[in-house]
Specification:
With about 725 residues, the protein is an alpha+beta fold. It has 13 helices and 36 strands. Helix 4 runs parallel beside helix 5 and helix 10 runs parallel beside helix 11. The radius of gyration is 27 Å and the shape is globular. Bound molecules: alpha-D-galactopyranose.
Length: about 725
């Protein structure tokens, strides 16, 4: 133990001499005298330090501090009492499970000799470019943990991850591995906000007070899931959409995950997140390392709305594959709701012609084009063109789509098989299963075990062939069930649980390799709607499918929840038929367009049933959308009136990055008792600039000036003349 501390002190002396490192992208500093690390960027300071025992202590996370402010971790807290022990009072930046720790640890390990005690102390650190790495080591055994930190210059969002390395001579089992633990200032004054949902009802916004005990947000499904999103926000009780302090964060992982928010007996609040520890047991061979996902988190004093905008900015400039300059999403057409599995060459060409006539830029053929896929009961896994439906392959359709001036996209669901498929008949062992146990189906399908090298190779080859043989610009990558019986019988029993990590790493690996080999390809992550949305998949896919629920009124709430965490640029929203299959609700075509135009616009209606006036409306609104889409997709979103909680109204506003343009969308659920629509006051404009207002749809009070200052629109506001049921308006504000 002594030797380790001495080594730590020596390394401090050597590396500390490097002193302050100004990273290109945010600032990382180490102060030798107080042994503290400080990350500063935008409006944020994050700090931690090494105490006299060699423990890493969290020191500060909040609004930016003065450059000369000194923080100190020097002395470990005195023992509180015999029951709780000193270790539980220390704000440990990243802890091993050992020494009587009762809260969520960073990492928990079982050694082959039965030892399960792990106590991590500082060994060394380095600063390379914008990345700070801090190495911790167990006080006795050769288990090393390297913590990685990076602060984003634009947003002050900190990225943290941990890599656990086994330098002992035997394998160990990692039973829990978090990316990070974040501490909030000690207080009772917190409310947790989180997202929950189910199929066709994603992204409900929930709040609950942070109280003694623990709230666990999680997925145990092998995939991200729509039951909770891997995102949290904790606000001061007096914070709201527009003001007050909010801490927020999100995990970049598409497998089973956990975020735990704990308040302990002395009112310390910890937020930790990483792999879900349930059924977790990663066999880490001698010499091997396990890297956790990254956990991104930020803080603002400007309310939940600003917390969301910071997340959106991070996604646009750092996460999405084309960051920092993601291409604007093309207006797409998708065949699913129009034709379901009944796709064929003439039918798709007829839809493509109609789609092109209204300004659609990408034509996507959904499910049904391959194998014996006439229902959801057969064919999944057989990625060969169905020759009854497409006698000459996909080329004639793709060529026609190109002649019509659009690019072509195709639906796939690579990780799944129907039992009734050639692939499953040939390889019944390729799926997740446990020997001798039932193979539970979901939507008549089974999950391929992508952790297996042969399955990974097969899937890459199948997709690579599809993209090499056909001129495909876009894949809609679907994933329509959660895991069951997550077994991997072909490997030794103590390695089988590695499936939770290896599967996802291989999924990411295929996406990376495909993108590299086909650099122009764009991909949408879909999972029965919004079941696979997280910062991990967003790094490798260009957009996500928000929900199978395309009812334009339901979507207002789902989209409001979506934008708490995720950028509208990635939020695909189709205009579909009315009445909807979801609720049998009838909505005007304009209402449906305006609901979808708040994100990335698509169409999914059966255009064969449209009347000439529908095409005229669509043509006009698609053109309007193209003019505003940079503002909507890449501008700043202000949620002016929330649709949550059965609200009668809702309104959003998007402001372009240079504040020269804004677009307002307003919706009325139903008029009651002759109440006028509330005055809408805009946000985020330049108060001194002059903006001209123009109605894209709807009317406003005739006394409204056509041109007024940003200050006017933000304070006097605008009175919309919205009356009746399911009404919608959209206004453009352009600087003169
Ligand atoms: C899922 C998707 C839908 C559609 C169908 C096809 O449900 O979310 O958009 O692609 O699969 O089977």
């Amino acid at each position: 133990m002594h030797a380790v501390r001495t080594l730590g002190a020596m390394l401090f002396a050597v590396i500390g001499a490097i002193g302050t490192a100004r990273a290109a992208d945010g600032s990382v500093r180490f102060d030798e005298s107080s042994k503290t690390f400080r990350l500063d960027a935008a409006k944020v300071t994050y700090a931690f330090g090494v105490d006299d025992k060699g423990q890493l202590q969290s020191l500060y996370w909040g609004p930016r501090l003065g450059v000369s402010d000194r923080l100190s971790a020097a002395v470990a807290p005195a023992p509180g009492d015999a029951i709780d022990g000193n270790i539980n009072r220390v704000r440990q930046e990243y802890s091993g499970w050992g020494s009587g720790l009762y809260y969520e640890p960073g990492v928990k390990i079982t050694f082959p000799d039965g030892n399960r005690d792990l106590v991590l102390h500082y060994v060394s650190h380095s600063i390379k470019g914008s990345i700070l790495s801090v190495v911790l080591k167990d006080i006795e055994r050769a288990i090393l943990v390297t913590l990685e930190y990076e602060i984003d210059a634009d947003t002050g969002i900190v990225r943290r991850s941990a890599t656990i390395t086994n330098r002992t001579s035997t394998p160990v089992i990692v039973e829990q591995a978090n990316a990070a633990t974040w501490f909030l200032p000690r207080s009772r004054d917190y409310t947790l906000r989180f997202l929950s949902g189910r199929w066709a009802a994603e992204n409900s916004v929930n709040e609950r007070p942070v109280q003694p005990g623990k709230t666990v947000l999680e997925s145990r499904r092998g995939t991200t899931g729509m039951q909770n999103a891997p995102w949290f926000a904790v606000r001061r009780n007096d914070a709201n959409e527009t003001q007050g302090q909010v801490w927020f964060g999100s995990l970049a992982w598409s497998g089973s995950w956990q975020i735990a928010v704990e308040q302990d007996q002395i009112e310390q609040v910890r937020i930790s997140g990483g792999f879900n520890p349930f059924d977790f047991g990663y066999k880490l061979d001698a010499g091997a390392s396990l890297a956790t996902p990254s956990f991104y988190a930020g803080v603002t004093t400007d309310g939940i709305g600003e917390a969301s905008r910071l997340m959106h900015r991070l996604e646009l400039t750092k996460i999405l594959p084309q960051a920092p300059n993601p291409r604007l999403r093309p207006v797409l057409y998708n065949s699913w709701e129009a034709t379901e599995f009944k796709v064929d060459e003439p039918g798709q060409i007829a839809l493509a012609e109609k789609a092109a006539s209204i300004g659609v830029e990408r034509f996507v053929m959904d499910d049904g084009w391959f194998g014996a896929r006439n229902t959801d009961k057969a064919g999944l896994g057989d990625w060969v063109v169905n020759r009854q439906k497409f006698p000459n392959g996909l080329k004639p359709l793709i060529d026609r789509v190109h002649v019509l001036g659009m690019d072509f996209g195709l639906w796939v669901e690579p990780e799944m098989v129907n039992a009734d498929s050639d692939l499953y008949r040939a390889h019944p062992d390729w799926i997740l299963h446990m020997t001798g146990r039932p193979r539970t189906e979901g939507r008549n399908q089974l999950v391929l075990n992508l952790a297996r090298a042969d399955v990974r190779a097969y899937l890459f080859d199948a997709l690579d062939k599809l993209l090499s043989e056909n001129d495909i610009a876009f894949l809609k990558w679907d994933y329509n069930r959660s895991w069951s019986e997550p077994g991997w019988p072909e490997v030794a029993p103590d390695q089988q649980k590695n499936v939770y990590v290896d599967f996802i790493r291989n999924y990411y690996g295929i996406l990376e390799k495909l993108r590299k080999k086909h650099p122009k390809i764009e991909i949408e992550s879909c999972s029965s709607g919004g079941g696979r949305i997280d910062l991990g998949v967003m790094h490798l896919t260009d957009e996500v499918w928000t929900s199978d629920n395309t009812d334009a009124f339901d979507r207002l709430r789902i989209q409001d929840g979506f934008t708490q965490a995720w950028t509208p640029a990635a939020m695909m929203a189709w205009v579909t038929d009315s009445p909807t299959w979801v609720n049998n609700r009838a909505l005007s075509l304009e209402y449906r367009f305006l609901s979808s135009m708040q994100g990335s616009l698509g169409l999914g209606a059966n255009l064969n049933k449209w009347q000439p006036q529908d095409f005229a409306t669509a043509r006009r609104l698609v053109a309007e959308y193209k003019a505003m889409r940079k503002t909507v997709q890449q501008g700043r979103l202000y949620r002016l009136i929330s649709p949550q909680g059965g609200s009668e109204q809702s309104a959003t506003e998007s402001v372009s990055a240079d504040r020269a343009h804004a677009v307002l969308f307003a919706f009325l659920h139903s008029s009651t008792e002759k109440y006028p629509y509330p005055t809408v006051r805009l946000q985020g404009l330049d108060p001194d600039a002059k903006y001209r207002v123009r109605a894209i749809k709807g009317k406003f009070d005739e006394r409204t000036p056509t041109t007024a200052s940003g200050a006017y629109w933000m304070n006097a506001g605008i009175d919309l003349l919205l009356r009746g049921d399911f009404q919608a308006a959209a206004l453009a504000f352009d600087e003169e």
